[in-house]
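Our preliminary data section would be incomplete without showing what the modeling component actually yields. Below, a chain of 314 amino acids is followed by its predicted structure, encoded as tokens that our downstream tools consume directly.
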Amino acid sequence: MKGIILAGGSATRLYPLSKAISKQIMPVYDKPMIYYPLSTLMLAGIREVLIISTPRDLPMFRELLGDGSRIGMRLEYKIQEVPNGLAQAFVLGKDFLAGGPGCLILGDNLFYGQSFTKMLRSAVHSLDPEHPMPEHVHPAHEHAIHKEETIALGKGACIFGYEVQDPRAYGVVEFDAEGKVLSLEEKPQQPKSNYAVPGLYFYDKRVCEKAAALKPSARGEYEITDLNKLYMEEGTLQVKLFGRGFAWLDTGNCDSLLEAGNFIATIQNRQGFYVSCIEEIAWRNGWITTEQLRELGNEMSKTSYGQYLLRLAK
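Predicted structure:
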């Protein structure tokens, strides 16, 4: 399975911060925001990732992350000229996915909690059986959920649900006891459940074909909810739930950006390990050697981030 990070948009709610720089380049405590969705894909075992962004911002992501080889990955880049909806990622990413399954994550979504890696690997394996389920997941990778069973889809899609007090500002998912999705609504005035849908989606190999068949919504965009409804209507859309104690943070305004940074700072300073450290995840996944990890640490040895990598490499 391959991954797509959608890191476009103008982020007007963050003006003037975002007037000259991409929101996904901004710091969430000690790392650029894009490290967090990238680390989610890495925890899922995904090594090939397409980053989609605006003509203005894409060069910054190239400079920051390069071709991915430094962390044992392959990164590609694609321009989205106009933000025409989340589902357009699978039209732009058709050649990259090359007829295979894909995962889409939004560039401003941050996930943290227990058993996250196991949950991600389960979702990937259920849609891509050739993707191996690990026999053991390192404790440092445990970042999100509650249910741990694999959904045996064969084909279809997997989305996630996060319980919120007031779901009217989100896409809302209704589901049965087996996790089969019954309805999807976008910002409903009378929600059928309290579960919002975060910006993380897994799809089978038919996703590009289905995305290409979508028609623009009333606001002129290709909606991810409409794509999910195609899977729901054929009975192959499943939902996994993030449980109590799990954190899903989005960084759409200045207050939420500050809250996310404070959250990461608290976790790291209290527990001593780093959240969404892409070099550590690559090393624990076996994608880079200890010597390569040490070299990456030496490049940043004047920072606490680099010193953390050097401690791991001892």
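Residues 254-271 form the longest helix (18 residues). The CA atoms of residues 85 and 222 lie 5 Å apart. Preliminary results of this kind motivate Aim 1 of the renewal.
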